[in-house]
Amino acid sequence: MARSLFFGGKGGVGKTSCATAYALNCAAAGQKTLLVSTDPAHNLADLFGRAPGATPTRMRPDLDVVELDPDRETQRYLDQVKDTIRPLVSGERSTTVFRQLELARHAPGTEEAALFDALVGLLLETGRDYDRLIFDTAPGGHTVRLLALPEIMGAWVDGLMQRRRKVRSDYKAWLGDGEVVDDPIQEALMRRRGRLAAAREHLTCAAYSAVVLVANPERLPTLETARTRELLESHGLHVGALVINKCLPEDVDSTWLINWRDEQRPWREQLAATFADRPVREIGHQPHAPASSDDLQPLSDALQGLTPWQDHD
Ligand SMILES: Nc1ncnc2c1ncn2[C@@H]1O[C@H](COP(=O)(O)OP(=O)(O)O)[C@@H](O)[C@H]1O
Ligand SMILES: [Mg+2]
């Protein structure tokens, strides 16, 4: 089973850059690595010189990249739901049911559920072919919501299953013959419950799954980072390391830059204090925004040897 790592943090702090730099390190060390982007605003295509596809694309030796496009994943998810439902509803009712499903496309939570479904597939199936799964997640709260989903969706599926069982036992009582017919909905729910439980087990096992939070030494990212760590931990996830990105170098010369560097200092200290019990890596602000994987070398160097998972025997 692959060890998975999620790079989380506010938009623009450097998640995509750090996740890519880290994935390049893993691949260079001979670990078969899959870099997964769930961020619609990513710039992986620029970094690798060509766009990743919907299935893993080989970009470097030992490094594949895959992009989860929210719209495409939502479509795939709804198609799958339709296929499950099709044999169960007929005639006029099916038109209504399928129209409801089309409306569900834009309902809150559908896109997340679809992305999560794809993530579960990556963790449980695709991940078997890799040593490392590196996730470049969508900004901020999304990471928490996405990773907490197995817990929430598990409870939801449990509720559905309970209601289904009640309906079936009522039927049994009405029919009075004691025979229980096969229930395809119950079976589909059970399968889903099993996958969610397996995903949740993987995500909450600190030896196999960890989150690296990326922050910049500024007020808001600092405050949010502490909150995000607490929230992730309250859902049983292992927050394994902190990256403080875009730190200005000591030897800046203009007054303007000296002021900026000095303003960063208390936030660097506060961030490091919040992660006193974890590895913390600082990455310097580069003179140019990294535009290619070569430009990421300083970031890769800063992340060298970082292991955010808990030791396992
Ligand atoms: N250490 C750094 N120095 C300078 N620019 C950086 C650094 N890290 C990231 N950037 C730039 O900052 C912007 C946001 O980075 P990105 O990795 O896309 O963040 P996120 O994925 O968190 O939104 C990009 O233009 C990126 O090239
Ligand atoms: Mg990004």
TrEMBL record:
<feature type="region of interest" description="Disordered">
    <location>
        <begin position="282"/>
        <end position="313"/>
    </location>
</feature>
<protein>
    <recommendedName>
        <fullName>arsenite-transporting ATPase</fullName>
        <ecNumber>7.3.2.7</ecNumber>
    </recommendedName>
</protein>
<dbReference type="InterPro" id="IPR027417">
    <property type="entry name" value="P-loop_NTPase"/>
</dbReference>
<dbReference type="InterPro" id="IPR025723">
    <property type="entry name" value="ArsA/GET3_ATPase-like"/>
</dbReference>
<dbReference type="Pfam" id="PF02374">
    <property type="entry name" value="ArsA_ATPase"/>
</dbReference>
<feature type="domain" description="ArsA/GET3 Anion-transporting ATPase-like">
    <location>
        <begin position="3"/>
        <end position="303"/>
    </location>
</feature>
<comment type="similarity">
    <text>Belongs to the arsA ATPase family.</text>
</comment>
<dbReference type="InterPro" id="IPR016300">
    <property type="entry name" value="ATPase_ArsA/GET3"/>
</dbReference>
